[in-house]
Design goal:
By secondary structure, the chain is α/β, with parallel strands linked by helices. The chain has 12 helices and 13 strands. It has 3 domains: about 10-130 and about 290-305, 3-Layer(aba) Sandwich (Rossmann fold), CATH 3.40.50; about 135-290, Rossmann fold, CATH 3.40.50.1370; about 315-355, no CATH class. The protein starts with 14 loop residues before the first helix and ends with a strand. The protein binds N-carbamoyl-L-aspartate.
């Protein structure tokens, strides 16, 4: 079998490869009809174990606009998953029906796990609160088109930085460009996980953590708003305490620079008032449109083998060690090899990035 380009974590690819995708997306935007039969005869499967509007439909639209066809489910309870089928078997079978498999699952590291058994390339469309690489490609295309660059930007990220997978993927990507500065706006309870902060530190990125949007909005080139991820909280009361703390409204927009743009992966709940939608700096609806073009480009690059193979599992097997993250895919899919990367006296789970301190 040809080596496959699974898109699990963008960090496995070079910035040249990211550019190839976003540049192709820009060409598709200029002349979409040129690409209308590029993937004819190809089948894309979308396996969505978690709710989605944009990601699933934009993938499906992208494939249909390239002349391909789609299969899949968006409600696992109507598939054999409800009969107890594991991820391995579902992936094995569906990947033999399709040429490309797009998966969203609430367990962290699930897309990596699926890629171990799939017979076709796997794209991570969100694995729990961990990563969301194709939203990041969407965000990078938005920044290129609307700000003209991916470097030298001051970016505020506001809301649920702990559970927001789009934030994690975006920070990992933008920290690879020069002179970006990050302002992390959240409550202490919803602060960015320390493993992402370590990546920022290791790459020499400047960042600060604050708890007031109002105080920093005037400094920003980009404001990336996020919703509080209700489904990732262990209890409703904790969510109630955290929701509605950050609100972007017309009043705060008055303090922002005239060329600041507001991004949001959507869905919006109550963190941006609707009056902001009419502000020309509000970019979130346009951002969602960019997502279709970038996914068209990604599908072409993956199906035409234009990318490298990325990174499979390359850590060491520690059969006796269990990942401590209760949301890690290795907790529910027991057959998976427990592989970890060793970093000094820390073992890092290769599926979900959770760290275990060795004693
Ligand atoms: C995001 C997601 O699913 O992580 N949405 C998306 O893909 N556009 C953000 C969210 O759900 O809050």
């Amino acid at each position: 079998m040809m080596p496959q380009s699974h898109i699990i974590d963008l960090d496995s690819y070079t910035t040249d490869e990211w550019n190839m995708i976003t540049e192709l997306a820009q060409r598709i935007m200029k002349n979409p009809s040129y690409y209308h039969s590029r993937c004819s005869g190809k089948v894309m499967a979308t396996l969505f174990y978690e709710p989605s509007t944009r990601t699933q439909m934009s993938f499906q639209t992208a494939m249909l606009r390239l002349g391909g066809t789609i299969i899949g489910f968006d409600n696992p309870s109507v598939s054999s998953v409800s009969k107890g089928e594991n991820l391995k078997d579902t992936t094995k079978i569906v990947s033999s029906y399709a040429d490309i498999l797009v998966i969203r699952n609430p367990m962290e590291g699930s897309a990596r796990a699926a890629s171990l058994t799939a017979d076709c390339p796997v794209i991570n469309a969100g694995d729990g609160g961990h990563l969301h690489p194709t939203q990041t490609l969407t965000d990078m295309l938005t920044l290129k088109c609307e700000k003209g660059r991916l470097c030298g930007l001051k970016i505020g990220l506001c809301g649920d930085l702990r559970n927001g997978r789009t934030v994690h993927s975006l920070l990992k990507a933008l920290s690879r460009y020069e002179n970006n500065e990050f302002v992390l706006i959240s409550t202490p309870q919803l602060a960015l996980p320390s493993y992402i902060k370590d990546i920022l530190n290791a790459r020499g990125c400047s960042y600060k953590e604050v708890n007031s949007l109002e105080e920093v909005i005037g400094e920003l080139d980009v404001l990336y708003m996020t919703r509080i991820q209700k489904e990732r909280f262990s209890c409703e009361a904790e969510y109630e305490k955290q929701k509605s703390i950050f609100l972007l409204d017309a009043e705060k927009m008055k303090k922002a620079r005239p060329d600041m743009i507001v991004m949001h992966p959507l869905p919006r709940v109550d963190e941006i008032t609707m009056e902001v939608d009419d502000d020309p700096r509000a970019m979130y609806f346009k951002q969602a449109k960019y997502g279709v073009f970038v996914r068209m480009a990604l599908i072409i690059c993956v199906l035409e083998n234009r990318l490298g193979t990325g990174k499979g599992l390359c850590g060491k097997l520690h059969s006796d060690v269990c990942c401590k993250n209760p949301k890690c895919i290795t907790r529910t899919e027991k057959y998976l090899p427990h592989t970890f990367i060793t970093r000094g006296d820390i073992l890092e789970c290769e599926y979900c990035d959770e760290r275990i301190l060795l004693d």
